[in-house]
Each structure stands twice: as structure tokens, then as C-alpha cells.
Amino acid sequence: MTTAGIYDLLRELPFFSNLGESALRFIAGCGQNVHFAADEYIFRENQPADAFHIVRAGHVALEIASPDRGSLMVQTVGEGEVLGVSWLFPPYRWQFDAHALEPTRAISFDATCLRAKCDEDPALGYELMQRLAETMSRRLRSARIRMLDLYSHAGTS
Amino acid sequence: MPVEQSTVIDRSELDVLIATLRDRGYTVVGPTIREEAIVYDEVTGVTDLPEGWTDEQDGGTYKLRRRDDRALFGYAVGPHSWKQFLFPPHTLLMRARRTEEGFEVDPGENDQPTYAFLGVRGCDLAAIQVQDRVFMEPHADPTYSVRRTSAFIVALNCSTPSGTCFCVSMGTGPKAGPGYDLALTELLDEDGHRFLVEVGSDRGAEVMDALTHHAAGPAEEAAAQAVVERAAAAMGREMRTDDIKELLYANYEHPRWDDVAARCLTCANCTLVCPTCFCSSVEDTSDLTGDTTERWRSWDSCFTLDFSELGGSNVRTTNRGRYRQWMTHKLATWIDQFGTSGCVGCGRCITWCPVGIDITEEVRAIRDQGSDAASQEDPS
Amino acid sequence: MVPSRYRVTSRHRETPDTITLALEPVEGEALSFEPGQFDMLYVFGVGEVPISFSGARDGQIEHTVRSVGAVSRAISAARPGDVLGVRGPFGTGWGVEGAEGADIVVAGGGIGLAPLRPVIQRIIERRDRYGRVSILVGARSPELLLFREDLAGWRSRFDMDVSITVDTAGVDWRGNVGLITELVAETGLGPTTVAFICGPEIMMRFVASALLDRGVEPGHVRLSMERNMKCAIGHCGHCQFGATFVCKDGPVYSYDRIAPLLAIREV
Questions:
Q1: What is the largest distance, in Å, between two alpha-carbon atoms of chain A?
Q2: Assuming Cys at both sites, which of A80, A103, B251, B345 could form a disulfide with B170, CB separation 3.0 to 4.6 Å?
Q3: pLDDT in tens, B8-26
Q4: Which of these three, B201, B232, B263, is where a domain ends?
């Protein structure tokens, strides 16, 4: 798919709403359209985090493998959502397995390319970081509340 | 209800009043001295009353002192209120026994004693009416409603308020409001020892027919009026009430709560002596065989740690939370719940608090000290 | 008020600590209740606790009970044929009938789904009177979901959206893993949406907040609150929540009424 085609796809994603046209075209240059089959592992824990994905359609589970309990799911990611933030920080390694639960389409950005573009254009970098920070904040809140294990303690009628 | 002209009875006629009420089947309960306090208990005659006594009350202080006259009602209120007779500290709610079809409930008879209350102060009459709104509507409590309906009330217009009284602030006295069967004002002067009597109901009028009385003249009316006016001018405390609900609703996080929490022992004395506090707990108990059980209701207090619970854990874990709950309920949320304040200004919570916490002082402190740092000035 | 005798007709284990009982009166007709109400469920010789109705069918009432203390543990041990006591119904209902014409969101977390089940049953009975219906369910893990048969039935319908998420799951789970608030993001909401939320208080606050952020009216969001109760008729004072008694001014409250109270500790 051409960069123009990627650009058209990006414009539809809520993640990039309010990002200017030239910034979006700039980013589109790092992107490509990808497909994953059901049960395919998109990335594995500890592999180099070399891509940033946004799911266009489908359902992906973030998992951790344990020897006695099998694979444990910590989060699922669906349409319009970001998959993977570890590409942003050293050591640039994935922290979880990403397991497509059904056929999944995504836009995938080469992490090296994207990091370089952010260095080149800090204003664009700031816009991207803001959006990613918001995603991380939401995920952190979700994780923290789930850590409280509210459903385990009596307290609902 | 007929509006009778006021009448006057001699002091000696009080024994006839008590006897008349007893003859009609009432258990007469009135003030009497026990363990150095004036409490409410059964009285059989004037000799049981605290003749010539008065009380000195202040925060955490209660003392009896001899008067230099023989007044029978020359004191304020003690640790007892009339609530123990209408809403007993322990009440059997039901019995149940194990059967083949699970269990069977024995609702029991609802036989309740018939009381005549002798010497109900304005604050306490108002308190009974406050509790009526809790226990009579919309769900009528069977024990309370039977006792309340049958209770004969002889009110007493105060002559000698105490250091913790503030009925004037709460609009409940010293003149007892409507709702009594008879109301007495004690007159003790150079013209003798007598009582002005006002009739407030048909059964009050009917009881008066058995007493020797004469119509009150203008001098006697004036003397009774003066008693009440002197009492109104001698209040020990005061509390501004026009803005209380909004004040407390706006100040759930006021620093004063930390201040009072450091003093409060959560001993629950205030809730026990308060004539309007109505919280209770229910317990199912069984005999040793486990085949017969009883359900008992007992007085409870919001100061207990586990009073408010969610899923096995306590909600109000701190003194601060519980004191704030009690005071905010008494003065503010009660108004939204029942249409009146929960406080009648009797002062008992001040007198019987072991550390002398004064509800009027706490309200004043919250009002006077702004809750933002800028106005944390010394109020004096 | 004294308890009426109700016999357990069936018992179904939902999770290791939660069971659903169906009860029919020993004499007379079963009481009728509004979804959202509760009764005081009594075990002879042990005591009473407030339990929401979790369903009604064939002249029977249903209760889903979690073992927390002495009384609920005793209730959970009841078997078909055992007789329990019932006093009720008490409290305010969800107002399902009054929500006819609106789009509906039902959000239940953990055992909070139990008081909502009668809402779903009532909506299904009169499906054509409601707009879009979305059911959001949160649980700790897939094995701890309640009413699994009902859930499967609701999911198989074409006239309602059922979304389920769990806090954590193993490989057998193909559904969502995440907080129930994340399901709100995918739910169609509008100015006429009426939402019924039940679960731990923290969960209810966050779900309400997420709904409000998406434009749902605070007066259209209803929560079911809980406090300990002894009498259920506003006399014992234990269930007070601000100026309200949960037993008679609740347990169902509209969010705009209690939002300030939810923010105060120890209220």
C-alpha cells in the first residue's frame, strides 16, 4: 500500500484526530498495513520492540507466560487502540506477548523510523507523546483498579 | 380539644393528681433522687419528688444542691429522659421456634405498660414529638405507638434552667408547647405554694374534674408568666440555628472535626442521654437447645466502631468520622429526614460528656472559623 | 414485621462462594417486588441480612448470595426443602418501567450483576418498549462470572449487546481483559440513555464517571448503594448515608443526588 493509502487509513483513526495533515503525511511514511491471522503471535516478550501498532479491526491479547498457569492475559486491545509502547524507551524490548485472538488488521509503524521522525520534528514528537501518554495513563489506571481486586472483597449487595 | 381557662391547685393537690392517675391504671413516673441524681422513676406521691433540691450543670458536671425553698420542681433535667419508657432500652420483638416446616414465629401479645409522665419539660415534650416522627410514621413501631398513645403527659414549665440548657435557642421551651394533657407551672411565693394548671386535652380535663381547683386570677396568670420569662432569661447556653443545616453540609472537611475528635472518647454517653437519639440494634438469640429463639432490639449508638459497615468492614473508622456523623445528623440531616431538628436544647449531651464537649461550642467554632487557612484566626 | 416462611426449591452454585436460591412461600402467594428492591432474608436462630432480589420466575423469588458473614454463610448452606424467612420487599427500585422509551445500559461488576438481573428480565419481557440495550459485565476472571446460562442466552439475542470483560484470564478466554470502564468506550450512548450500575462502590463511581464523560445525564445514571441494616424500615439508623436511609431512600439512587456524598470519606 502506498504512503498516500496509509495516510487515508490514519485519517480515520481517532488516535490521530486533530493532528495536522502534514504531520500525518510525515508519520504515514513510516507506516504499513499489516494482517495477522487468528492465534498468530504479533510479538513475544523480550523481542526487540521495533514497531508501534494501531489496531484497525480485530482483537489482541497481551499475555505473560507462566510455567504453572499457562499464558495469562492482562489486557485485550481492540479496534482503534494502540498496541505496544515499549518501542519508546530503552531497552526497546517487548514486555508481553501479543496474541491475535481473531484475524486482525493493523497499521504498523517502524519504530526506528518513527523515533527518527520525532527527533527531526519535536513538535510532532510532542503531539505523539501526548496521545501515547494518555493511552498509558488509561491503561495504568485500569491496571491499578484491577489490582485492588474489588470483586473479591464483599461489598456489593 | 377544649381550651379551658387556666386553673390553680394547691401543692397538696398533687398527691390527689398522682392518686387519680394511679386509680385510672397509669404507672406514674416522675423525678426522684437516686444515686445523687434526679432521675425518672415510678413515684407514688409528692414525698418521692426532689423537694428543695436543684442541680448545677456544666460540661461534664452534674451536682445536686439544696435550695433555700421547698420547690418540688426547682431543677432542670437529669440523665434520664422519657425515651426509655416509650422506646425501651431492650425490647423483645418476636419469638420463634423450630418446627417441621422450618420455624414458627410467635408474634406475642403487644401488652404495654400505661404511663403517666409527671413533670415533662418543654424540651422533653418536644423530644417526644421528634421521636414520634421517627417511630410513628410511615412505619409505626408497635411498642412505641401503643405506649405513646396511652401515655398521659403532665408537662412542667421550667423555673430553674441549668448551665447547659438552651431550649430557647431551639424553640422548645421553657414553656412547654402543645401536646400535653396537663401543664403545670410551680408558683412558690408569699401567697403560698401552688400550681397553675393548663388543660391540653379531653382526658386532661377529665382528670382535673377529680381535683380541687379554682379558676386562675390575673395575679396567678402573671406570676406563672413571670416564672417562664425568668427561666427564658437564664439559659446556660445558646445556639444560632437559622443557618445550621447549610453550615454543616458545607463543612464536612472543616478542621474543627479533627479538634473535637481528639477530645471525644466515643463513649456514647451523649447518645444514651439524648432524648431523641433512636438508633438500635437487633440480635437473634437462642436457648441452649437451639430450638427456641428470641429477637431483641437494644439501644445502639453511632459512636460504636462497627455501627456502619460495608461488606464486613467498618465505614466510620475514626473518632472524627463518628463525631461528625452524630452532630451532623442531630443538627442537619435530621431536618431533611424528619422535618425538624433532632436537637431540643436539653443540654444533657454537654452535662454527661466525660470531657465536656459542648455541641453549641462546636457549632460556633465551625461557623466562626472559616475552613480556609486565611481565616484561621483566634476567634477571641 | 415478622418473617414469612419461604421454602428453598432450588440451589445453584454460581462460583465457589456464591449461590443462587429459588424460594417459594410456604403459604400463600409469593411477594412481588420491583427490580432493585431487597428483602431481609432470615435463617432461624442465626439472623437476618438484606439481600437484593436477583430474579423472579413461576411464582418464586430468587436470591444470589455471597458468603461473607455468619448469616450469609448459613443462607448459602440452605438446600432444597429448607425453610428461610423473608421480610419485604423494601427499598427503591431501579425504575425500569419509567425508563421505557430510552436506550438502556446495564453495568454489573462482580456480584453487582445480581440486583441487575431482574432489570434484564423485565426488559426482555417488554423488549419493544425500550431502545438500544447494552449489557456490560465485569468479573475477576471467567470462572467467576455469574449467571453463565443467562449470559449465554442474552448474548445470543440480536436485540441487545452484551459485553463482558474480566480482570485477568488464562488461555481459554477469547473475550476482553480489562476494566469494565473500557467497555463503556465501545457502547453507543446518547442523551436519552438511562444507565443502571451495580458493583463495588469504586467501580460504580468510575463507570458513572465514564458515562458522564460520554454525555449521559447524571440524573439518568442510577447506582445501587449498600450499608448494613438491622430493621430495613428506617428505625434502627444503621444504614444512614448522608441524609438518606439506604433501606428506604435507596438502595437505588440517581447519581446526581449522591455524587457529593460519594466524595466524602466516612459519610
A1: 56
A2: B345
A3: 999 999 999 999 999 999 9
A4: B232
